[in-house]
Design goal:
This protein is α+β, with helices and mostly antiparallel strands. The chain is built from 10 helices and 12 strands.
Length: 349
């Protein structure tokens, strides 16, 4: 019985008849951080139960005193003062019909709640995704059909060329959107790889591939890469740069005398720092917390899918990196990314 008490994954505390701590198991210590030496002979109200929880705790104790088993889904506080969501059972301890104590059993439900929250977020994103895909796929197609009908009606070659140019723009927009959707899906499903990264090759290819974007030819790019070996996921690194550079081109400041994109990579043993800076239109302060959300468009100038920075964030998360954005409206934006080296994935293959 002692082994069952001590080794249970649940947190268990034995209270005496005066509701003071008699003993705790390893699970209780793991969940709340207190040792038996710190709380033995004392009331839990001095440690894990705050004032707003007193009535609830008393109700559990009263039920146990009546010989009833009761439970709540609630929260308690750990040694660091953090709220810990738990399911709490209060079980009476009897000896020849006399109440001699209470077993308090705590089940840590942090992982369950995090999973529920993640599921809720995914479901919300899925609803938004379905709506957005249906809208963003149909709108360019409707535009193309309209332009085709106009082309059929027009006899002048110059007019036809004009409409064909418009159609090409709509097709490219649609193709770009589909690429983003497929990229997001691939990032969710594909396992992380470890490749030797040639940053210069990847970045230059991104600029070439995105040269079709309106205004791309007017943007000067400056690239600074420190020498050194770095291992990470090549596909995800490419998607990160593609979306960052694409955004910098799309949201360039058309009133500026020159448009620039500066890309720098600093390679260290443990990882690398990446910085992408532009002198574009910038992001308003109130929009900044939302720019990583799926399909969020922070400006009326937006002509993109609204998924680019979301893909960047998810790709960075997938390879255990961090990302932050600094932006000043009218002056530009800097996105800083730190990525850990994945060399160990190669060495352990």
């Amino acid at each position: 019985m002692h082994q069952l008490f001590e080794n249970s994954p649940m947190g268990i505390v034995l209270l005496d008849a005066d509701f003071n701590v008699n003993s705790i198991n390893k699970g209780f210590e793991r969940i709340f951080g207190f040792t038996i030496g710190e709380i033995k002979g004392k009331s839990l109200t001095d440690f894990i139960i705050s004032a707003e929880l007193m009535e609830e705790a008393q109700s559990l104790n009263d039920s146990a005193l009546k010989g009833e088993m009761n439970y709540f889904e609630s929260y308690r506080y750990n040694k660091a003062g953090e709220r810990v969501p738990v399911i709490i059972y209060a079980l009476p301890v009897m000896d020849h019909g006399k109440h001699i104590g209470i077993y308090g059993v705590y089940i840590d439900i942090r992982q369950r709640l995090e999973a529920e929250e993640e599921l809720q977020t995914r479901n919300s994103e899925l609803d938004n995704f379905v709506y957005k895909v249906s809208h963003d796929l149909r709108a360019p197609l409707a535009s193309i059909l309209g332009l085709i009908n106009l082309t059929k009606l027009e006899g002048e070659k110059t007019d036809k060329e004009y409409y064909i140019d418009l159609m090409e723009g709509q097709v490219l927009k649609l193709d770009h959107f589909i690429h983003d959707i497929l990229s997001h899906s691939k990032n969710l499903k594909m396992s992380v790889a470890s490749d030797q990264i040639d940053f210069k090759e990847i970045i230059n290819k991104c600029f070439v591939d995105l040269s079709y974007l309106t205004g791309a030819s007017k943007v000067e790019h400056k690239i600074s890469i420190e020498d050194g070996e770095f291992f990470s996921d090549k596909w995800r690194i490419s998607e990160i740069f593609r979306n960052l550079i694409s955004n910098a081109i799309k949201y360039r400041n058309q009133d500026a005398s020159e448009n620039t994109i500066e890309v720098s990579v600093s390679i260290k043993v443990e990882g690398c720092d990446i910085s992408v800076t532009d002198n574009g239109i910038g992001i308003p302060v109130d929009k900044l917390p939302h720019v990583m959300e799926m399909f969020y468009r922070g400006t009326e100038y937006s002509d993109g899918s609204g998924i680019g920075l979301y893909i960047v964030q998810k790709a960075v998360d997938k390879i255990n990196g961090t990302l932050n954005i600094e932006s000043t409206p009218g002056q530009g934006t800097t996105i800083n990314i730190w990525l850990p080296s994945l060399r160990n994935l190669v060495e352990h293959k």
